[in-house]
């Protein structure tokens, strides 16, 4: 039996579509993100600041991130609101659980905070407020790939 061009193309399409569907299913299963997505640093103050930050796993776990970040001053818009300068670190291990965040700003006193339990895709955000205080928070408004959620 001779194979027609149309039959060959139809067979190729069916095999290709089935293969792609399998790839999508595999990708979805492999891309389930459970844990820390990244660490963000933001400066809302109108002065530049340097943060020395160490983030470790749990209360006595191993070091995850150690960075010295110099953040330029925030920009004050015409409406008085501030646009922060930001940096982030995304080469962090994807792990659930709690994290210990230690920081000092401009070589000041070292402070520590233990985060809540991270489950799912979360971000640790270290911010310098317009009052020159450092806050640490968790943010869950990112998708599995570390992009801002819509």
Automatic annotation (TrEMBL):
<protein>
    <submittedName>
        <fullName>Uncharacterized protein</fullName>
    </submittedName>
</protein>
């Amino acid at each position: 039996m001779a194979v027609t061009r149309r039959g060959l193309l139809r067979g190729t399409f069916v095999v290709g579509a089935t293969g792609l569907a399998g790839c999508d299913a595999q990708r979805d299963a492999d891309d389930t993100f459970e844990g820390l997505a990244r660490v963000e640093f933001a400066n809302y103050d109108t002065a530049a600041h340097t943060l020395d930050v160490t983030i470790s796993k749990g209360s006595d776990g191993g070091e995850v991130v150690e960075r010295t970040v110099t953040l330029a001053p925030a920009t004050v818009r015409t409406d008085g609101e501030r646009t922060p300068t930001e940096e982030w670190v995304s080469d962090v291990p994807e792990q659930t659980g709690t994290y210990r965040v230690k920081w000092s700003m401009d070589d000041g006193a070292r402070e520590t905070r233990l985060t809540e339990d991270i489950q799912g895709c979360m971000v640790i955000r270290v911010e310098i407020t317009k009052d020159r205080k450092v806050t640490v928070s968790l943010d869950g408004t990112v998708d599995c790939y570390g992009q801002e959620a819509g």
